[in-house]
Design brief:
By secondary structure, the protein is an alpha/beta fold. The chain has helices spanning 9-43, 53-65, 119-128, 156-168, 186-189, 192-202, 294-311, 319-333, 354-360, and strands at 46-47, 80-85, 102-105, 141-146, 173-176, 206-210, 232-237, 272-275, 279-283, 287-291.
């Protein structure tokens, strides 16, 4: 056995200095993260023991903003909704009364529901929470397809498979609080997700998708599949009804590289806006907090359509004609911003108004 070689003093000191630096940096990162978390608890944006007064106040304010208070006698009973996201944490106390209609895991192939990211649980809570927070349509039959990983990522093929699964379940609504970059090659090469939502349309299923969150550095395009003209594309507003600064727009003149096709049709832009800034949500670990993004706005529209279907169940079997009419009902019933007459690239046809939408969809006497 050979003796271990001696380490020169200079190298030893250098190694120790490097370890000290790494330790200091790591400690600093942990302290900053802990400080941010503590600050969010202090301000009420995160709660570990039931929703804070701030979170409950936001919930009430948003309910008034979109006329939910006028339709809260409805609960989505008899309506089938499929959410494609990162999963769902069924251990959250606000989901204790939820009987999940079905579940499919396209990431880990696990038989029991889970959420290793948290986004899916937040979105599900906006729709069906029943405890500290109250979802918009707590009695829908909820189907959940996990197509996003723990990191919040998902590839087109997987998301498309999840959408196809939703279609196979013959649901009434598919809610997509997700989106990817719109490809200029999709017309030529095809796009799995865009093809999947078109198939859903052909099956008479409402598809609602997020516009995207790149408003601060907007590329002039909403996310895919929100750009598909048969999809209801949703932007976000704050508690005062003002456009959230992160909400994507959809007007562009096209470009050669990276490829982007010109899009000027209102059907390929945000068509309606809904709460998307500091929205009350449930969180992993049986927590509550606030979240911003057009993902949340998407679920508000999902909830509104679910209540519409409960109020007018005959519409559920209306096929593609009903889907086309729904876009018009949304346009007619949405609350326009000050000075707005028609469709706006940012604000769509206006802000979601649940009661007005349900009335607009009522069969003519």
């Amino acid at each position: 056995m050979q003796p271990m070689p001696e380490i020169p003093d200079g190298e030893l000191e250098s190694d120790l200095d490097f370890i000290k630096q790494i330790t200091i940096i790591a400690t600093g990162v942990i302290l900053i993260a802990a400080g941010v978390f503590a600050y969010m608890i202090f301000t009420g944006e995160i709660s570990l023991s039931g929703p804070t007064a701030l979170v409950l106040e936001k919930e009430e304010d948003f309910d008034k903003l979109v006329q939910y208070n006028s339709v809260d006698h409805l609960s989505g009973n008899g309506v089938d909704v499929c959410m494609v996201d990162s999963g769902i944490d069924m251990t959250h106390s606000d989901l204790s009364n939820l009987n999940l209609a079905d579940w499919s895991d396209f990431i880990g192939s696990k038989s029991n529901p889970y959420d290793d990211n948290g986004h899916g649980t937040m979105m599900a809570g906006i729709l069906v929470a029943d405890g500290g927070l109250t979802g918009l349509a707590i009695d829908v039959n909820l189907y959940v397809a996990k197509a996003l990983s723990g990191g919040g990522d998902g590839d087109d093929a997987t998301v498309a498979q999840a959408i196809d699964w939703c279609v196979s379940k013959n649901v009434n609504i598919i809610s997509l609080s997700l989106g990817g970059n719109a490809s200029g090659f999709s017309i030529i090469l095809g796009d799995a997700v865009e093809d999947a939502v078109e198939n859903a349309y052909d099956a008479g299923i409402v598809v609602i998708a997020a516009a995207g969150n790149d408003g601060k550095n907007d590329d002039g395009d909403v996310s895919s599949p929100g750009i598909v003209d048969t999809v209801i594309c949703v932007g976000g507003v704050d508690v005062n009804g003002n456009l959230w600064e992160g909400s994507s727009i959809g007007d562009n003149n096209g470009r050669i590289w990276p490829p982007m096709l010109p899009r000027n049709s209102p059907d390929e832009m945000p068509e309606v806006v809904a709460p998307g800034h500091k929205v009350p949500v449930i969180m992993l670990g049986d927590n509550w907090g606030l979240s911003s993004g057009t993902s949340a706005a998407t679920v508000y529209v999902t909830g509104a359509v679910a209540l519409m279907f409960e109020a007018h169940p005959e519409l559920k079997d209306g096929g593609t004609a009903m889907l086309d009419n729904l876009k018009q009902w949304i346009a007619d019933s949405s609350k326009k911003s000050s000075g707005q007459d028609n469709h706006d690239d940012h604000y769509g046809y206006g802000m979601l108004q649940m009661d007005d939408l349900i009335q607009a969809a009522a069969p003519s006497s």
